[in-house]
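Exercise 7. Predict the structure of Nucleotidyltransferase family protein from Dyella koreensis.
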Amino acid sequence: MLPPLRTLKAILRRTTETLAHQLARPSETAPDWSDLEWRMAMAVAAAHGISPLLCTLSPWSNPAWSEFLVDQRAHVEHRCKRIFALLEQIDAAARAERVAIVPLKGSALHAPGLYLPGDRPMADIDLLVHEHDAEKAGRLLQALGYEASFAQWKHRVFKPREGSPPAVLGEHRDTPINIELHTRIQERLPVHTIDITDRIYPGDPQPGLNPYPSTAALLSHLLLHAAGNICNRTLRLIHLNDIALLAMRVHPHEWDALWHTHTDDDAPWWALPPVTLTTRYYDDAALAQLRDRFETECPPLLRTISHHQTLTQVSCSELWLHAFAGVEWSRSLGEAKNYVVNRVKPSKETIQERSDMVRTQLWLRDQPWVTQSRGRRMLRWLTSGAPRMDTLYVVRAALAYPLPVE
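Solution. The predicted structure, encoded as C-alpha cells:
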C-alpha cells in the first residue's frame, strides 16, 4: 500500500538529495532511515540509473539495500555484455553495407573506459546515421532481428521481434535491447528546436561504427540531452555523473573550438542549467569556469531559476506533474504562448507520440490517468494535482521488492 502522497513526496526528495551527494562525495556514514525510506532509496537509485555505481560507493550496512545494489550491478553487467555484443554485430553489418553509424551517449561513454561494464545502465542503444542512410540502416537492423516499433520527431524506435520487458525494479538482464535510430541530434526547448548534428556527425565518416569527432562533441551532446531532460522534468542523476566525469577529459582548446562553431544567434545558452546543476553536486573547477562562460548567453529568467533548482525538482523524484513544466525555457513571450497553446491543444503529432508511449511503455499500461481526455487531465492538474505515473510505478516496485532472508 502506498504511503500518503505528501509523505511520499518528502521521502523522495530526502532520499534523492542524499543519494546525489553520496554519489558525488561518498561517505561511510549511513543515513538514519526508516524501512520505508530505504525502500524509497531503492526506487530513487533505480529511477536515476545509479544503483551499480552505489554498489561500490555506498558501503552502508542495510541488508536489503546492499542486496539490491549487488543484484542490480550483476544485471547491468550482464546486460552491458549483451549490448556490446550487439554493437559488434551492428558494426560488422554496417561495414558490409557501407553505412557509417555513430553510437551515442552510453555506448560512447563506455568506449574510452569512462565506465566499466556493470557501472552504468543503458536502457537502449542510440545510433546516429546520415539522413540518406536512414532507410538502409533500418533494413540493416531488421536483418539483425529487429522491427520498427514507432517513430517520433527525434528518432525511430526498433525493438527485437521477440521478448518483452519484465515488470521488475530497476534493470534486468533479460530486458529486450531497443534501438533508437537518429538522423538528427536535437531537442525542443520547449518548442524551439536546438540542433547540433553538424557537431556530432564525423567529418570523414567510415563504414561501420564511428566515434564522436571529439570528447567535447560528446560532452556537448550530453549537455543538450540533459537540457532537454531538465526542461521536461525527466533528468536522471546518471546524466549529471556522465557530465562530471567527461568534463575532466576535455581540454580547454577543445571547448574553444566547439564554442566558435556557434553563431551569435545560436550560442549554447541551453548549457547553463545542466552545468549549473552538475556543479551543485560535483566540485569541478572546469565546469565552474564553463558555467561562468554560459551565464551571459542564458535568458535571464532561466538563468535565475537554474541557480536554485535541485535534482529532485527536475526529475521523476518530483512526485507531482506540472501542467506547464519547462515554460521557463521560452526565450520570448511569443514562444511561451506557443508552448502553452500546444499544451492545452496538442498537435496530432503530440497526440500520436502519447499514444505510442501508452502502447510501448510498461509503466503506463493499465493506468486510467493516461486514457482520460485532455480536458479532464488539465482540470485535475489545475485543481487537485496529479502524481507522475513513472514515479508511482518505480515506488510500487520498490515496495514489492523481496527482502533478504535473514
